[in-house]
Design brief:
The complex is a heterodimer. Chain A is 28% helix and 20% strand. In chain A, helix 1 crosses helix 2, helix 1 (17-29) packs across helix 4 and helix 6 (186-196) crosses helix 10. Chain A has helices at 17-29, 34-43, 72-80, 105-122, 153-161, 186-196, 199-206, 220-231, 242-251, 263-277, 296-301, 362-369, 439-446, 503-508, and strands spanning 56-59, 65-67, 84-87, 93-95, 100-102, 303-311, 317-324, 327-329, 360-361, 373-375, 381-383, 388-390, 392-400, 407-409, 412-414, 419-421, 426-427, 431-433, 461-463, 466-472, 477-485, 489-494, 497-501. The relative contact order of chain A is 0.08. In chain A, the strands form 8 sheets. A 5-stranded antiparallel β-sheet of chain A has the order 2-1-3-4-5, with helices on one face. By secondary structure, chain A is of the alpha+beta class. Chain B is an all-alpha fold. In chain B, 82% of the residues lie in helices and 0% in strands. Classes of the chains: A alpha+beta, B mainly alpha. The interface between A and B is medium-sized, with 31 and 30 residues. Chain A: One of its GO terms (biological process) is proteolysis.
């Protein structure tokens, strides 16, 4: 492909060529509407052999479709001396004289516009593509096609001005950095490690998507942005997060002080403050409506928990859906009764965990969380169907799954009589399928459909990428985190010390 | 045209008409990127270009060299999933 370009297109660029080209794109390459699709389906076959495969091309000078692989379009080009053809699959323009695909600026422009038009017509069906563990940028708004990044003039300037480049190989340690403990701050350090290795969050901050609207210097989102810059700068010395600590103390007073705090509480407080400070990022669309927020925190972490209360007398169901950032699970050995499980817990294997070994699994806890619970006579609910107070059962299921799910095992018991830590080992898998806990699954079961059809459209599967562990007792303990990098490498983050870990280390840990 | 290819053509027509073909393409694209297939072949393409020289290489060269490799490297799980989805669609829209 000669860098000088193809001179043969000039013969084509006469009269109303732009409009003609557009029509070809709209009808035969990227058909957006139902009628163009129908026409494409019917007419896009080779005029010589009738096949619809084999890299079908359309002649640009007349109405002729021919296979590329079987050279039917080549024959046509030779016979009629029509030098240009268009690939119906990808929209590329081929010149038979140059014998290669050519890239004419004007034609490329038309192609891009038509593709975008067709995409818009096809609507919001295509979800934003999510590429975990791959260093790729992707579109955040649903309904916009992912297209590769092309730098703007300003960005080109910046790139030329700063010629140093960092190459990401599979063994590089960029993104791993220790955090100095500033006095029992391991509860904060462990959560920060988990957040900085959340791929979606990382990509959001590294692509500078936060536009700050806060006047003072106390925006936590800006500080997170700084933190990400520090983590991915390539420096290997541990980072001292004093500014972050100070901001946390300012915005979440209940976490201030040098005593040991609860990491889970920190996570929720941090997400809350980040969510509140994210106001500038969605062009001011929803500023005051908490239920309709579109900030990055909500996009990633918010799920919907469905609570169904069924009246025992009239069987009317009252449903509410509440947003959640994490799922707090009770453990066996706590004062709330754990056994027996709901019907269905018959010792079958789920998510590759065996029930028979006797060890509690994460799935057991989830099953318990979503079991129907009889709310005894002491807690009667007013039923709108019966117009009186009746006994009822309550059941929780997942209505909407968050992109990142946080499971919190309630190991710290703070009841009136005792304060203790439950150290029961809970095993958890590397891959988790949430389908059995979905509201839709429950409805299927109730309608007598026991066969769980494989739903290819909705992916309820999760991959583990961070585990926070607590060692020690309630009074004095220490938090550490395991995080996953590059798809299958695990690292243990113990404040300032980062060490490599194996899958086994992670799965054997307390959780 | 043989019976087999006639059936193929009919299925293709149905898929295109209902827009399902585009959706399947996007699903396939996402799956192949997710599993690293795209990156691997991109690297292969770069090798071919280096070999033949940037000025002289044509798209045809790449097609000839990369297509067989690409076909072989598609993971079975992806093939299975796409097949399942096509089956489901046809079952739903059988005439």
């Amino acid at each position: 492909m000669s860098p000088a370009g193809c001179p043969h297109v000039n013969g084509f660029k006469v009269d109303n060529w732009k409009q003609n080209l557009r029509v070809i794109y709209q009808c035969f390459v990227w058909s957006g509407s139902a009628e163009t699709r129908k026409r494409k389906a019917k007419s896009c076959v080779c005029h010589m052999c009738g096949a619809h495969l084999n890299r079908l091309h359309s002649c640009l000078y007349c109405v002729f479709f021919g296979c590329f692989t079987k050279k039917h379009i080549h024959e046509h080009a030779k016979n009629k001396r029509h030098n240009l053809a268009i690939d119906l699959l990808y929209g590329g323009i081929y010149c038979f004289v140059c014998q290669d695909y050519i890239y004419d600026k004007d034609m490329e422009q038309i192609a891009k516009e038509e593709q975008r038009k067709a995409w818009k017509l096809q609507g919001n069906f295509f979800k934003a593509c999510i590429f975990p563990y791959r260093h790729t940028l992707y579109a955040f708004s649903v309904g916009e096609k992912y297209s590769s990044w092309e730098p703007t003039k300003r960005e080109l300037e910046l790139l030329r001005h700063n010629p140093k480049r960092r190459k990401m190989t599979t063994n590089c340690t960029i993104g791993l950095r220790g955090l100095i403990n500033l006095g029992n701050t391991c509860f904060m350090n462990c959560i920060v490690q988990a957040l900085t290795h959340t791929p979606l969050l990382r990509d959001f901050f590294l692509s500078d998507r936060h536009k700050c609207e806060m006047q003072s210097n106390s925006c936590l989102v800006c500080e997170m942005s700084q933190l990400f810059q520090e983590f991915y700068s390539g420096h290997r010395s541990p980072h001292i997060p004093f500014r972050l600590l100070h901001l946390v103390w300012t915005h979440a007073r209940h976490l201030a002080g040098y005593e040991q705090q609860d990491a889970h509480e920190f996570l929720i407080a941090a997400l809350d403050v980040l969510h509140r400070h994210c106001k500038g990022d969605d062009n001011g669309k929803k500023a005051n409506n908490p239920n309709n927020c579109n900030c990055i925190i909500d996009q990633i972490f918010t799920g919907g928990l469905q609570s169904d209360v069924t009246c025992q007398v009239c069987h009317g169901v009252s449903t509410t859906i509440d947003p959640f950032w994490d799922i707090s699970l009770d453990l066996p050995g706590s004062s709330t009764p754990f056994w027996p499980l709901s019907p269905g817990g018959d010792g079958s294997t789920l998510n590759g965990e065996s029930h028979l070994s006797g060890a509690t699994t994460l799935t057991d806890c989830l099953r318990r969380f979503t079991r129907p619970e009889h709310l005894g006579s002491g807690a009667k609910i007013k039923c709108s169907g019966c117009h009186s107070y009746q006994e009822s059962t309550k059941q929780l299921t997942m209505k909407k799954l968050p992109i990142v799910a946080c499971f919190h095992l309630k190991r710290f018991e703070h009841s009136a009589k005792l304060r203790r830590k439950i150290i029961t080992y809970v095993s958890f898998p590397l891959e988790l399928d949430m389908t059995p806990f979905m509201a839709s699954s429950k409805e299927n079961r109730m309608n007598g459909q026991y066969q769980q059809s494989v739903d290819v459209f909705n992916d309820n599967k999760y991959s583990l990428f961070a585990v926070v562990n607590h060692q020690g007792t309630l009074e004095s303990g220490h938090y550490t985190t395991f995080i996953r990098q590059h798809m299958d490498q695990w690292f243990k983050c113990d404040d300032a010390i980062i060490t490599k870990a194996s899958n086994k280390d992670v799965l054997d840990s307390e959780g | 045209m043989s019976k087999d290819s006639k059936m193929r053509a009919t299925i293709n027509q149905k898929l295109t008409e209902m827009g399902e073909r585009e959706r399947l393409k996007e699903l396939l694209r996402a799956k192949l990127t997710e599993c690293g297939w795209r990156d691997q072949l991109k690297a292969n393409c770069k090798d071919v270009i280096k070999e033949k020289g940037l000025e002289h290489v044509t798209v045809e060269d790449l097609v000839v060299e990369i297509t067989p490799k690409g076909r072989v490297l598609v993971p079975d799980s992806v093939k299975k999933e796409l097949l399942q989805r096509i089956r489901a669609f046809l079952a739903q829209h059988a005439t």
